[in-house]
Amino acid sequence: GGDFDWTKNEKTSFYYGTFPTGFSWGVGSSAYQTEGAWNTDGKGMSIWDVFAHKKGKISSNETGDSSCEGYYKFKDDINLMKEMKLSHYRFSVSWPRILPSGLRSEHVNEKGIRYYSDLIDLLLDSKITPVVTLYHWDLPQVLQEKYGGWQNASMVGYFNEFANLCFERFGNRVKLWITFNNPWSISVEGYETGEHAPGLRTRGSGAYKAAHHIIKAHAKVWHTYDMKWRSKQKGLIGISLTADWGEPVDVSNQRDVEAAERYIHFYLGWFATPLFHGDYPAVMKEYIGRKSGQQGLGASRLPVFSPQEKSYVRGTVDFLGLGHYTTRYVTQKNYPSGFGDSYFADRDLAELVDPKWPDPGSEWLYSVPWGFRRLLNFVKAQYGNPMIYVTENGVSEKMLCTDLCDDWRMQYFREYINELLKAVRDGVNVKGYTAWSLLDGFEWDEGFSERFGLYFVDFRNKNKPRFPKASVQFYKRIISSNGFPSQREVESWKRKAVETCSSSNQLLAADPLIGHMEMVTEIVVPTVCTLCILLSAVFFMFLLRRRL
Ligand SMILES: CCCCCCCCCCCCC/C=C/[C@@H](O)[C@H](CO[C@@H]1O[C@H](CO)[C@@H](O)[C@H](O)[C@H]1O)NC(=O)CCCCCCCCCCCCCCCCC
C-alpha cells in the first residue's frame, strides 16, 4: 500500500467543517437503469435487454424496458436537479441507442444522438455540468453474439470508434468523460459468476480476459482523445472504479494485513495499477501465476501486458472516478488447488462483516463510513495522489419500503460525506462527490427490488411519478453549506428534512396502488420497513445457502 499506514486505524468523531471552494456536488444515473424506451426511435438491443428478457435471470423476471421512462422525462428530472442546486450530473450513453449494431460503419442512429444532445444542452442551460460515462454495462447485443463481447480483443477497436463518435458529436460541450463504469462488475459478475449480462460462467479465466481488454480499450480511448480532441475540446478522460475497503481482522497480524491488501489489489488494483503503473499488481501476478501452475496450466490465467502495452496503458487517467459503498473485514484463508479455477479462490482470503453494521437494503451493502476515508488515503498513497471524483456512493432500501422519511440514507450520507471531508483534510485530492442515485432504478439482477434513489419512483404507475425522499432535503443542505458548517446547524437538518417528508408520504399514500400496498403490509407487521428488514434477512440466508 505505498506509504499507507495500516495501523493508523482512525474512527474519529464527527468533523465540522466545509469542503474547498468549487467542490462539485452531483447525482448519478445510468442508461439501462433509468431510460426505458428499450426499443424506441431506432435503438438496438443491448446485452442487458436480452439478458433481462430471459426467464430466471432477474428478480421477479423484471426488465428495464420502461424503468423510470427517463428517455421521455429528462426535462422533469433536470428540474429536480436544479432544485437541488447540483453542480454536476453523471449519466451514461447507451451505445446501442446511437450505434444499433455497435458499429459506426453500419449505421448511426441520429434520433439517439439527438436525445443525448438535448439532454446535454438542457443541463448546460441549467448550469449543471454533464459528466458522461461511455460504458455503463450495456454492450450492443450484436457484438456479444458475433465476437463474444469483452472476451474478444476486437472490442478495443469497436469501443474506440463509439467513443470517438461521442467526442465528435458531444465533445464541444462535455468536458468530463468516464470510459468505463465499474469494470470489476463487468468482468466478475458478467464473466465469472454470470449474475449479470452476458451471464457467462467462465470461471477463473473469463473475468481476467474481459478485464484485460477493458483496460486496453480504456487506454486506446484516452490516447484517441489525447491525440485528436484534447487540444480543441480541453476535456478530461477518466475511468470509474468501484471498490470496497478491506480492513484486516487483526491489524497486528501480518497475514491479515497482507490478505486485506490482496483484497484491495484484486478489486481496485486490478484496474488502477496498470493504468497508473503500467502492469497488474505484483500480488495478482504471483497468486494467479502460482495457482495456474498448480492446476497444470502452461501459462498464468492472468493475461500478460507486453512491454509496449505497459507503456501504452500507463498514465492514461486524467482523473480517477471512484465508486464506493461498503467495507469488509478480511483474513487469510487458503483455497487448495483442487478447489478449481476461480477469481474468488485466487485471492486466498475470507470476507467477514460485523453484524452490528447497519444493512438497510442490498445484502452486500453495510454502512461502514470509516472505510471510505481509509480507501481514499490508500489511493493517495498507492497512486501518487491523483485527482479523484467520487462517482458513486449511496445506500438502498427494499422495494416494499414506501417510507419516504429515509432516516438510514440521511445517516449514511451524513457519515460517508463526513469521512470524505476528513480525507480531503488528509490531503486526498478529491474534486467532487456524486450521490448514487438520482432516482430509484433497475438494480440489475435485483430488478426493482432495491431502491437507491434520492427520489422514490412509483414503478406501478405508468407515468412513473417521482417523490422526494427526506434525503433530498438533507443532501440539498450539505450542498448549500458545502459541507457541515456547525453542530447546531447540522443537527437541525434531519429534523427539517423529516418535516417535509411526512407530506410527501401522504402524497405517495394517496396513490391507490401504493396505498393498498401499505395497508396490506401494515396488517402483517407494524410498519412496512420492519417487513423489509425481515425479508432481507430471509433473502440473505437464502443467498448464503445458495453460494455454499
Ligand atoms: C470461493 C469463495 C466464493 C466467495 C463468493 C463471495 C461472493 C461475493 C460477491 C460479492 C458481490 C458484491 C457485489 C457488489 C457490487 C457493487 O460493488 C456494485 C457497485 O456498482 C454499482 O452498484 C450500484 C448499486 O447496486 C448500481 O446501481 C450501479 O449501477 C453500479 O455501478 N454493484 C453491483 O454490481 C450491483 C449488483 C450487486 C448484486 C450482488 C449480489 C450478490 C449478493 C451476495 C451477497 C452476499 C454478500 C454478503 C457479504 C457477507 C460477507 C461475509
TrEMBL record:
Belongs to the glycosyl hydrolase 1 family. Klotho subfamily. This is Cytosolic beta-glucosidase. Its EC number is 3.2.1.21, 3.2.1.45, 3.2.1.46. One of its GO terms (molecular function) is galactosylceramidase activity. It catalyses: beta-D-glucosyl-(1<->1)-N-octadecanoylsphing-4-enine + H2O = N-octadecanoylsphing-4-enine + D-glucose; Hydrolysis of terminal, non-reducing beta-D-glucosyl residues with release of beta-D-glucose; beta-D-galactosyl-(1<->1)-sphing-4-enine + H2O = sphing-4-enine + D-galactose; beta-D-glucosyl-(1<->1)-sphing-4-enine + H2O = sphing-4-enine + D-glucose. It is an enzyme of class 3 (hydrolase). It comes from Poecilia formosa. The chain crosses the membrane at residues 523-544. The lineage of its organism: Eukaryota, Metazoa, Chordata, Craniata, Vertebrata. One of its GO terms (biological process) is carbohydrate catabolic process. It comes from the Eukaryota. Keywords: Glycosidase, Hydrolase, Membrane, Signal, Transmembrane, Transmembrane helix. The active site is at 392 (nucleophile).
